[in-house]
Task: inverse folding
């Protein structure tokens, strides 16, 4: 389970705000040739102009950095010239803004304030907003806020992110329209923002998206789940593992558990694994193994992963066997002889597997059983089991 591979898979999301968020998160990574080839292929196929622009910007920046020794850093004067040119190349503007030295930032901010930059091509607006997130100030808040209702979800997402950095209190009045936005990724981003002011209400919205019948809602919830304190959403995520059957969704959820390892988590995951079948059981088993390995790598446990897993499985199966003992003991009181027979045979199976705690339960029941045939059958069976060596005992 490669987190970067799964993140790149989100570039196929039908939600442009999700694709924008993915590109923003991976933009500054060190790209290898295989990843670059994949991005070039995606850019060639991308139909959304804004997303294609973003991909081309990343590719052009990487090419520019390969020749950084030859190209001098951009200046505020260059950017001012582009801003005043109505026929400018917006890709060049985006690249210059991303590479501008910090000391040149204030001059460009002032130049932007003297233009109608909010009316620029929507494709370049996220790049301008990203620049203002780093260099802007109170004088830019009004213009940025005006874009928090923009029709382009990429621009809207970038504006909300920038306003969150410069003046988050101004987002309070925008929360309601963002929560009902038709774009899944915008709604999930709004839920994350809501957590700042009303954590309980935000978690209720998050839960509604996480367990929505709409898979795009669930995907968006998982995408932004990384921004919540994991202990707050951990019970919901364990429940999600139990209910979700889509392999990709389960894999994405697994990254959250691996990124937030806690010593008490493996037993919960073990329970989820044992309650599952087939491919789902295998996937949750991989999540469990990943969490155990993360715990060991982080120094949170001393035992090696294989040893810890074996110990946890022993604890889990013993705990489950004790629960079964209680259940079978109740069934021995049934008025139906078939129910008593089934419960007694199940207890005998537990004894055979080494759970000797079942012996006194079965003996006590045999002393009260009124069915002579059933009593004879189980008496003989119990005598054989008690006489037999325990599993694993030396011969």
Result:
């Amino acid at each position: 389970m490669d987190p970067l591979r799964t993140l790149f898979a989100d570039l196929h999301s039908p939600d442009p705000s999700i694709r924008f968020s993915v590109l923003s998160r991976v933009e500054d990574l060190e790209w290898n040739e295989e990843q670059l080839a994949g991005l070039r292929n995606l850019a060639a196929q991308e139909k959304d102009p804004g997303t294609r622009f973003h991909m081309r910007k990343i590719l052009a920046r990487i090419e520019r950095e390969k020749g950084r020794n030859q190209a001098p850093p951009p200046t505020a004067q260059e950017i001012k010239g582009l801003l005043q040119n109505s026929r400018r190349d917006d890709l060049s503007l985006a690249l210059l803004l991303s590479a501008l030295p910090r000391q040149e930032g204030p001059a460009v901010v002032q130049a932007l304030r003297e233009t109608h930059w909010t009316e620029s091509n929507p494709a370049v607006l996220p790049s301008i907003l990203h620049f203002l997130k780093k260099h802007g100030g109170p004088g830019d808040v009004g213009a940025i806020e005006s874009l928090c209702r923009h029709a382009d979800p990429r621009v809207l997402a970038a504006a909300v992110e920038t306003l969150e950095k410069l003046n988050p209190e101004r987002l309070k009045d925008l929360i309601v329209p963002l929560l009902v936005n038709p774009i899944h990724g915008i709604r999930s981003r709004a839920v994350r923002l809501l957590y700042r002011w009303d954590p309980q209400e935000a978690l209720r919205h998050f839960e509604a998206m996480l367990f929505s019948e709409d898979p795009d809602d669930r995907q968006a919830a998982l995408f932004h789940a990384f921004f919540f304190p994991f202990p707050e959403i951990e019970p919901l995520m364990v429940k999600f593992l139990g209910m979700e059957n889509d392999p990709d969704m389960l894999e994405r959820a697994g990254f959250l558990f691996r990124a937030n390892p806690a010593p008490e988590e493996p037993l919960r995951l073990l329970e989820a694994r044992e309650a599952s079948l087939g491919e789902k059981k295998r996937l949750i088993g991989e999540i469990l193994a990943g969490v155990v390995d993360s715990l060991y790598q982080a120094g949170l446990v001393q035992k090696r992963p294989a040893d810890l897993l074996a110990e946890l499985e022993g604890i889990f199966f013993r705990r489950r066997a004790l629960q079964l003992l209680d259940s079978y003991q109740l069934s021995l009181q049934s008025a139906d002889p078939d129910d008593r027979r089934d419960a007694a045979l199940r207890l005998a199976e537990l004894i055979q597997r080494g759970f000797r705690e079942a012996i006194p339960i079965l003996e006590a029941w045999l002393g009260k059983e009124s069915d002579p045939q059933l009593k004879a059958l189980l008496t003989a069976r119990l005598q054989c089991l008690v006489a037999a060596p325990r599993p694993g005992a030396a011969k």
